[in-house]
Amino acid sequence: MKQKFLLKSIAFQAGLSLATVDRVVHKRGNVKQETALRVQDAINELEKQRQTAQQAGKRFTLDVIMEAPERFSKEVKKAFEKEMPGMRPASFRCRFHLNEIMSVSQIIALLNKIHRRGSHGLILKIPDVPEINQAVQKIVAAGIPVVSFVTDIARSNRLAYIGMDNYESGKTAGYMLKNFLGNQSGQILLTLSRDIFQGEEDRESGFRSFFSDIPQRIKILKLSEGRGDNSKTESLALELLSREQNILAVYSPGGGNKAILEAIKRTKQPCQFFIAHDLDRDNVQLLRQGKISLVIYHNLRQDARRACQLILRYHRLLPSDFTISPSEIGIATPHNIPCL
Questions:
Q1: SMART domains recorded for this chain (predicted)?
Q2: Nearest 5°: phi and psi at 183?
Q3: Phi, psi of 90 (to 5 degrees)
Q4: Closest C-alpha among 267, 223, 269 to residue 242
Q5: What is the spatial order of strands in the sheet that 294-297 belongs to?
Q6: Tens digits of per-residue pLDDT, 226-246?
Q7: Do 129 and 188 fall into the same domain?
Q8: Within this chain, do residues 77 and 194 fall inside the same structural domain, yes or no?
Q9: CA 239/CA 269 separation, integer angstroms
């Protein structure tokens, strides 16, 4: 068996004689099983130490591209800035490319620029459309790891998706609203920022699955393309709600919630329950004021840390079997707002 480490290093780590380690490593026999296990444990520990030593002094530059409202992208930026110092002994810095509105052509131009310039890794919250997926595929083929963040671009050959299970979060919202409404009849307003974010589409699908058995009693009214912008969302919501009646509740994966509340107030809708997503400054304020009922969220700092860890794994500075799980789905009410 070929070893990466000197036999004397293994012997020192295991607390065994050089002769004993030689018998184990070269399978010469006459060795107890517990002794062989001690040698293997020592080799594993030396491997961990080697990886830690390799990380020391390594500097990684990541590019974070996000199309999102400023209130959300600001929280993501803060999460990365808080977590990066804790990734020692590796050193991380991020180049943030944060925009509230980006066209597909602008996103592709930025991706191509990063492709030419180089990067140790990309973290992306961008629309899931064929042209963008193709641009990301070229970056992946060039040896730059890509992680999708909050919303997935699964057809891009990205390394992994970081965030909550969006379908399950939509089901969670559906479960709570269906139980709250009981036998009432009326409409639920479902709002998205855009139809081309996979994460919001998955939330919508999960939510709708809970009401498929009562289409005659509960109608789901969809509002989209407000891009989470309060001004644009309010205009769209007023136009829609002025023609509708009996909006009993709102499920808002797409943001712009101050605007939605204003439109509900101005059109005199009997809204009883409001579920939002993400603990940005607007939603925290609305929760404290009791204007929305609850917020479904995930821990952005944990997600930022996992994204950095996946980049380390790609660069062989974490074990190849290192894995992550979907982020836990959190529920915040006016009585348990977490400090993240």
A1: HTH_LACI
A2: -95, 10
A3: -75, 155
A4: 267
A5: 218-223, 186-191, 247-252, 273-277, 294-297, 330-332
A6: 988 889 999 999 999 999 999
A7: no
A8: no
A9: 14
